[in-house]
Amino acid sequence: MATELLEQIRLNGAVPRHVAVIMDGNGRWARARGKPRYEGHRAGMKAVREVIEGAVEAGVEILTLFAFSHENWQRPAREIAALMNLLERYAKKEKHELKRQGVEVHVIGEVEALPDSARASVADLIEFTRGRRTLTLILALNYGSRGELVRAARRLAQSALRGEREPAAIDEAALRAELYTAPWPDPDLLIRTSGERRLSNFLLWQMAYTELYVTPVLWPDFTRQDLFAAILDYQRRERRFGKVTV
Ligand code: IPE
Ligand code: IPE
Ligand code: MG
To answer: C-alpha angle with apex 38: 36 to 42, nearest 5 degrees?
Structure first.
């Protein structure tokens, strides 16, 4: 089944260059099984592996995964601790496999505010996978889009105060250059699992023209087949960017 979908993707041609994913539904997955929320997050790790392998197979160049939002600090301390612990374990356990697959890891978000041990293992993961070229994996950690935009505005104001630029010269390119995502093109496709139809403060600027795909599948159940189905759906769409097509 997965290979047939992959074959169809190849026949269709252009694959989304940058895919972003809001990995949602871990808590509901656990609740449906009478398990603690933590077990849902743990089960979600398998789906992370699936989506990375699927992205490599399909020829996606950049994959951004929303792993922890700025607003997620409002969750119970025990759940946050479990998530940080999982992140640390993921970084340590998967780094060799990611390197073998040719995955280069980056992060966006206020990573400095993560607990020391999680931050250190993520820094090591970034260092360890540097220079790989098959897939760029961007982990959004302690990320919030409004906070990112405020940070960019502050940096622009500081540079204007230093006399490095005229306020009137601040344009879209200047703001874009101050975002965490500056090195990469905007997402072509956003996938949100668990049926929620909202952006939850994720890449608001960057997704101005991103195609949105919502699936009812809960994140721990997400497989590469689901990724391929989303890519096929994307390939059927007509992107206009405000223009008319004949
Ligand atoms: C997504 O699953 C994981 C994170 C936000 C870290 P949730 O934990 O939000 O799962 P639901 O939405 O409660 O089912
Ligand atoms: C978005 O999911 C954040 C991540 C997937 C990391 P949430 O579950 O936190 O979003 P809301 O609360 O449903 O909007
Ligand atoms: Mg959720």
So the answer is: 125
Instruction: List, for residues 179-222, the tens digit of each pLDDT value.
Output: 999 999 999 999 999 999 999 999 999 999 999 999 999 999 99
- Domain topology for 15-150+186-199+209-235: Undecaprenyl pyrophosphate synthetase (3.40.1180)
Q: Which ligand is nearest to the CA of 82?
A: 1
pLDDT at residue 1 is higher than 90: no
Atom of ligand 1 lying closest to residue 25 CA:
14
The domain spans of the chain are 15-150+186-199+209-235
Query: Each residue of 151-160: pLDDT tens digit?
Result: 999 999 999 9
pTM assigned to the model = 0.98
Other beta carbons within 10 angstroms of residue 96's beta carbon come to: 11
Give how far Cα 197 sits from Cα of 65, 140, 230, Å.
Answer: 17, 19, 15
Strand partners, 143: 69
> Cα separation of 203 and 26, whole Å?
21
CA distance 16 to 229: 13
Whether 23 is in the pocket of ligand 1, judged by its Cβ within 6 Å, is yes
User: Which atom of ligand 1 lies at the shortest distance from residue 37's CA?
Assistant: 8
